[in-house]
Amino acid sequence: MGLSTHVLDTMHGTPAAGMHVALFTTQGDGVATLVKSFVLNADGRNPDGMLYDHVSLKAGTYRLVFDVAAYFKARGVALPVPNFLNQVQLDFGVAHADQHYHVPLLVSPWSYSTYRGS
């Protein structure tokens, strides 16, 4: 079914269009390998669609890194120095590659939450 992500800016009540995101595969020893980086579209999603399609997704561990501070600075939000959140890094596992894994992020300059969506 694949892997996807979506980011909502809870400060402004909009999708986080323009946020930079990077996807990595990870190993048990902490080594991360960049798979792709992209900028979210107007809907707060990867402009190319799925991060992995149902054929390419494999069981294993992954990391999504969201460049939160740069996004809010670009939106004109006055952030303290140092800012509270810089990058949000989500490490997660895919146990069943035949299922869909959706990793949404709800974010403001001061908080974030995530869950396994559908």
Describe this structure in words.
The chain has one helix at residues 68-74; strands at 2-9, 14-15, 20-26, 32-39, 60-66, 88-94, 100-107, 112-114. It has 118 residues and is mostly beta strands. The protein has a single domain, classed as Transthyretin/hydroxyisourate hydrolase domain (Immunoglobulin-like). The strands form two sheets. The protein has a four-stranded mixed β-sheet, with no helix packed on it. Strands 4-3-5-6 form a four-stranded antiparallel β-sheet. 21% of the residues are buried. The mean pLDDT is 96.
Based on the model shown, name its key terms.
mainly beta; Immunoglobulin-like; four-stranded antiparallel sheet; 1 helix; globular
Number of helices: 1
Tell me, briefly, the overall form: globular
Within the CATH hierarchy, at the fold level, what is the topology? Immunoglobulin-like
CATH superfamily placement: Transthyretin/hydroxyisourate hydrolase domain
* CATH class category label: Mainly Beta
Cα distance, first to last residue?
Answer: 10 Å
> What kind of oligomer do you see?
single chain
Radius of gyration: 14 Å
Largest beta-sheet characterization = 4 strands, mixed
Task: Please estimate the helix content.
Answer: under 10%
Strand order of the largest sheet: 2-1-7-8
- Strand share of the residues? 35-45%
SSE order: EEEEEHEEE
Second-tier CATH architecture: Sandwich
Structural class: mainly beta
Q: What is the arithmetic mean of pLDDT? A: 96
Low-confidence stretches: none
Number of domains: 1
The count of β-strands is 8
